[in-house]
Specification:
With 45 residues, the chain is an all-alpha fold. It has one domain (4-44). The protein has helices spanning 4-11, 15-24, 31-43. Helix 2 (15-24) crosses helix 3. It is globular.
Length: 45
């Protein structure tokens, strides 16, 4: 993640969500996209 705002948003997520996103290999396209992905992982936990 090169975008500082995106990185800040990612770092604000719970560690288990961060790990799930990293392990999934999904490409984060925007802050909104990151929020949607995080919500999906939280809903599936």
């Amino acid at each position: 993640m090169e975008d500082p705002k995106l990185k800040e948003c990612f770092n604000s997520l719970p560690p288990y969500i961060q790990e799930s996103i990293l392990q999934s290999g999904v490409e984060i396209k925007s802050e909104e996209h990151l929020r949607q992905i995080a919500q999906n992982f939280q809903a599936n936990q």
